[in-house]
Amino acid sequence: MNSDMSYDAVMNRKNEIMKNAVGIDYNDFESGSIAFEYEKMMKEVGYTLNEIREIQSYTSVGNTPLIELRNLTKIARMISAPGKGARIFIKDEAANPSGSFKDRRASVSAYRAKALGYEGIIAATSGNYGAAVASQAAINGLKCIVVQEVFDSKGKGQPEILEKGRKCEALGAEVVQLTVGPELFYTSLCLLEKTGYFNASLYTPFAISGIETLGYELAEQVKTRTGKEPTAVIITHAGGGNVTGTARGLLKAGCKNTKVIGASVNLEGLHMASDRDFNRKSFTTGHTGFGVPFATWPDRTDVPRNAARPLRYLDRYVTVSQGEVFYITEALAQLEGMERGPAGNTSLAAAFAIAQEMNEDEIIVVQETEYTGAGKLPSAQLTFAKLMGIEVRRGDPADDKPGERIVIPEHPSQIRVKDMDLDKMKRSYVKNCVTAYSKSKIRPEDITFLAEDTKSDVNYIKNTLDELAP
Predict the structure, then answer these.
(1) Do residues 351 and 234 make contact, with C-beta atoms less than 8 angstroms apart?
(2) 185-238, pLDDT tens digit by residue?
(3) Which residues, including other chains, have CB under 8 Å from residue 429's CB and lie 6 or more apart?
(4) For residue 307, how many C-alpha atoms fall within 13 Å in the half-sphere facing its CB?
(5) What phi and psi values does residue 333 have, to the nearest 5 degrees?
């Protein structure tokens, strides 16, 4: 093990650590500048989509139900203009073994780790992914360590994150709990060096390829049920893997015209690495605190090149408020009989609003639900919010202010989406690339790569670079 364990030294040997912990040498895809061979990296997985479906089937992952939300569709139509109100479907990913779509992600990494002879796997995550990795490790007979960011400096932890930690432990994982700060990826990398375990990172090609089956399966089910492709699929967006994997699966299913829409809870003004702000949010994932920075600079993770690149696939990116998600969570339970956790319901709140923009014969699909539990229920989250000094009241959710006030709608017509400026985010991403590779001359292949990575074209990138020039 390397003796220099300083933060900078560990982060600087990230590629070396990943080579040992994932079996991928990221240098094989590098060009020495902005561009890298993204699709070549994705092929490093070594399995076809059908082979991944077989891998997932072995551990009972996937083949989850697609459910039409007839009562919510009926209400959307009641408050829409005549002829508006698309049919709303939801993919019940809570039916996976650990209760979320993250099992798809973890299944490929666990299978790969076992096939390569690793003794255990490690994941750095405060979300459902930890439980998914623990579950897949248990099925495959692997040891498991989950590194979580749990507490503020006073030792207070969000009920939802504590719930996830308990679930990881119940599934047999060792849980390393940290206070908020920059240590999450550092600690994970140190543990990978120390244990020699496989890195079940959220951001490797294995993790993203596992989600492709969700988009593909969803497309198959919609075609079988309705005889047509989904008009739009709405995806809760955080670190980018959910959007990337689902969109790639839709494309592999031939759904080139299906609109890919990302949705996040608006936490504008709160800093995720801030000790003060850490517990002043009521959602631990699927929010703009991850959604914006990971879209505008995806290579900020524990791997040298992130396989999750949402700007490649997003057609639209919207936000909803915390209060709107709490409202739709109760509506899903009390109108459709489905008690599910908050992450998928972020997309559902957005889908309920966007369905009212669409025609009645069109189809919008919410591509995930997640399990719920005591710490994830609205009652637990809202009680904790009040303890943290957050005002909780009924009213117009337009008055919601992250960190100060949660406003729960009084009527379903008050659920609305707010469009994020995708053009601005793409320009921000290009700027970040130029800054990161400032010592390299921008070449034609860099411009082509940036066009692909932003779902734009060469002229758009050239114009953006001209605007950025000093």
Answers:
(1) yes
(2) 889 999 999 999 999 999 999 999 999 999 999 999 999 999 999 999 999 999
(3) 295, 296, 297, 311, 453, 454
(4) 28
(5) -70, -45
**In Å, how far from its chain's centre is CA 56?**
19
Domain regions of the chain by residue span: 55-98+205-419, 422-468
Question: Please, which residues bridge with residue 123 across strands?
Answer: 146
Q: How, if at all, do strands 316-320 and 418-419 pair?
A: antiparallel
Q: Are 349 and 319 in contact (CB under 8 A)?
A: no
Fold of 55-98+205-419: Rossmann fold (3.40.50)
Under 8 Å between Cβ of 349 and 327: yes
Placement of tokens 């408050």 in the chain: 79
Closest CA to 129 of 193, 211, 73: 211
The tens digit of pLDDT for each residue in 234-280 reads 999 999 999 999 999 999 999 999 999 999 999 988 887 788 888 88
CA angle centred on 230, ends 226 and 235, rounded to 5°: 135
User: Is this prediction's pTM over 0.90?
Assistant: yes
Q: CB 397: neighbour CB atoms within 10 A? A: 24
Residue 96's Cβ-side half-sphere holds a number of Cα atoms within 13 Å equal to 33
Q: Are 53 and 72 in contact (CB under 8 A)?
A: no
Kindly provide the b/e burial profile for residues 199-214, where b requires at least 16 CB atoms within 10 angstroms of the residue's own CB: bbbbbbbbbbbbbbbb
* Residue pointed to by tokens 């390393």: 176
Tokens of 289: 């605190």
